[in-house]
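Sanity check. The docking grid for nicotinamide-adenine-dinucleotide depends on where the pocket ends up, so I'm generating a full predicted complex first rather than guessing from homology. Inputs follow.
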Amino acid sequence: MATVAPQIQPFTARQFEKPEKFLDFCENNGRPLAGIIGGRDVMGSMNVTYDTTDPGSLEVLASVCEMGQAEVGLAVDEAQAAFASWGKTSVEERCKLVMKLVELCERDRDVFLACEIFDGGKVSELAEGDFTQIRACAEYFCDVAKKAEMGEGPAMQVAAGMKGFTYREPWGVVAGIIPWNYPVVLNSWFIFPALLAGNCVLLKPAEDTPLSALYTGKLAEEAGFPPGVFNVLPGRGEITGQFIAEHPGVRYISFTGSPGVGQAIMRTCDAHGTRMKREMGGNGAAIVLGDADPGVVARQIGRYTNQHFGQTCCTVHRIFVDQKIADDFADAQRDFFENLQIGYQADAGTQLGAVVNSTQYSRIQRAQQETLARGGQAVLPGGVAEVADRTGYYLKPALFRTEPGVDCNPLEVFHTYATICPVSSEEQAVVLANSSPYGLGASVWTRDTERGVQIAKQFRDGTCQVNCHNSIAYGLPYGGQGISGGPGGGVNCEETFYDYTQVKAVYVGDYPE
Ligand code: NAD
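Predicted complex below; grid placement will be based on this.
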């Protein structure tokens, strides 16, 4: 029997109005928002602008200049020039500037919330949580940077008359290519470790959500970062992103996005030796053991599945439930999904808002239909949702039942969407959970946490969880296995900091007499 757990609520919006400062920033005195290169506003030689819109109303928020090949080249030149001195600044000086930037972000908290809510389409509860990551991330990496072993390592005698040591230094010019779903968080995860390690950065936001990166670029100038240390290059992936990947002066790229794009960028980078790390999509699994309360766990998993309306890389989309409780679990999950309040993301009470753009809107509908075509049984079929007085990319949640051997959910769908599959044993559940090519996050739900840990360790995922999901903590790596990630040590841990450095071996022989 399922127990109802009303205290476990979906992420919910409070009423949020656009602050004046955000409106002024977007309006920009009637000019499109420019890229930020070498401390200057750069409109771009291609003369191309694009609009960034609110997905819940289709209102144009701002017009943005696209950066082309010339601007990428200019940014690399400016960053290389700035690196000559930035690379030699003390860790204390870098930490001071980073924390100054954090203070300015906190001064303008409402602008960042507006960016997440209107440009990104997020509900306030989630946007507010995301905002706290700016300080948390900066403080964590300041601590790591202060303890990091840069420069010369201990010398060793490698042969008679010859010693050797390691030399660790920043790469120089590094680029962060960021997706649209968590811009404030993912900008922070890139810029703070990269800058603190002594690199100059090119930040390339997603075309759908450029505003927070551009605003952060302005604040970085105000904080006093030397020109060229912090550059922001808005534009489409296949234009601006591609030119960044093709530029041999970019020594390292941190990419977050879809596996297909990450694989293509890696091939481009490999042609000229640019190193990269990749954090990519997932199709997260949850295993629910027979001792779990189906009502409580269905609600908790529902909250995660619906986090940012399912547009969260590591969240749950495939659920494997002990067959004894599968019916109760499916009923409770259906109730949770059905009762989500669909609406405009800045209206009080909204729990499921519009998806980010028309491409996703069509893709998700196709995926819902494909699930049926591949043998899934619709509990809630999804489809288009109507929201009074709003035009936007609104969709209903989708829930399907399936069975072992029916492969109806092979790809990341990126909406409030899940399949429920009854299983006859834990072993079967683990095999099915691991049968995906993705490997970002998985969880197991049980009152027996020791048993849970034994199962969690068998997941072929970067993040393995017991009685929780979408978990992130500074100090623990957040990365993917399979097509979800690598190379690189994941984000948010010491190894992340070292990813932004290169290490060389230096050999010193006695002068031959
Ligand atoms: P995407 O791969 O389409 O785009 C990501 C970024 O790459 C954007 O800035 C885009 O402009 C750029 N890009 C696109 N084509 C490019 C090219 N040819 N060269 C260089 N850059 C290019 O992904 P998206 O739709 O923006 O984001 C959603 C995806 O991101 C999902 O798969 C999601 O799971 C994943 N994601 C992963 C994590 C993680 O930490 N693992 C976090 C957030 C999102």
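Relevant for the grid: The chain has a mean pLDDT of 97.
Also worth noting: The first strand starts at residue 35 and ends at 37.
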